[in-house]
Amino acid sequence: MPVPYETEPNGRTAIPLPRSARAGVWIAVVGLASGLPASLAVAAGWENAGFAFPPMIAVLLATSAVFLHRAVRPLLLVLTASVTGLWFITVASDLMEPLLVGWPTAARVLAVNGAKVLPLVLTAMVLVRYRPDQHEISLRLGRWRADSGLSVAGHRIDWRLIGTTVGFVVCCGTIATGVGEFNVAGLSEALSWLPVYTAAAVVNATAEEFLFRHAINGVAGPLMGRTALIALTSAYFGVTHVNGTPSGLLGVLLSGSFGVVLALAIDHTRGFCWNWTLHFTADMAIFFTLIAATAPSG
């Protein structure tokens, strides 16, 4: 039997905030920390916006922590740490680009994604200071068989079916985008580099789930209701991937939709068992497809 789903934990009440502070939360997360200003500036023709904007945004977020409602301060400092760490990765990647040109695709994937340990550590340092509630941050395995809140013909559906189905669809959909470019040499290279991009997927899934969901839940969960928090983290995740694969509006919509599933997984299981597993699975499919489709034939 699936573990019953509790819509709200006992005793949970959101901290009352003035309207300006509530708006400030959305602006800080989706409008600033997501990298949206830099993305818009790059689209407008400012090529160096990706280097110039993040430090300014980090300073703005840190400064806002002093003047906005005290309850919002932990969130703003978490975002500051995340933005700062990701900016260092951007700068380091640009400086190392000449060295990485000759590297195999899998090795470059590991180098770039492995660096995400930095924003993870910086953000964790802020969280250690503020000690968010364990129920909010949900840094535990959680309940694999948690109830999804859905039922078919009177039978309750738990997350084993939801997670397996979503993982299968994401894998098939991702691989289908590059299957036309696959060749024997590419498939051979993808298999031979499997341990390397598996490590990259482990780090990336861990870092992104922590930065985009668990950490935000820990500091923003006390400020808003369940539905608003799911919408906030999903929008954050979607907008951040505007330059991902695929990019643009389609990338935002697909990543945002996937983000809703991952946010619901945390909310229902009260842990990282399904959101991390699904993110890792998606990363493995993306990395496999990238390597298999770009390897030279012959």
Compact summary:
InterPro entries: Rce1/LyrA-like_dom. By secondary structure, the chain is mainly alpha-helical.
Structural features, described:
This protein is 71% helix and 3% strand. With 298 residues, the chain is mainly alpha-helical. It has one domain. A two-stranded antiparallel sheet has the order 1-2. A hairpin with a 2-residue loop joins strand 1 and strand 2. Helix 12 runs antiparallel to helix 13. The N and C termini lie far apart (52 Å). About 2% of the residues have low confidence. This is CAAX protease self-immunity. Keywords: Hydrolase, Membrane, Protease, Transmembrane, Transmembrane helix. Pfam families: Rce1-like.
Report the oligomer. single chain
Structural class of the helices, strands and pairings? mainly alpha
The average pLDDT value, as a whole number, equals 91
Rg of Cα set: 20 Å
| Strands ordered across the widest β-sheet | 1-2
**What is the count of β-strands?**
2
Unreliable spans are: 7-11
Helix content: over 70%
Shape: globular
Distance between the termini: 52 Å
User: How many separate domains make up the residues?
Assistant: 1
| Number of helical regions | 13
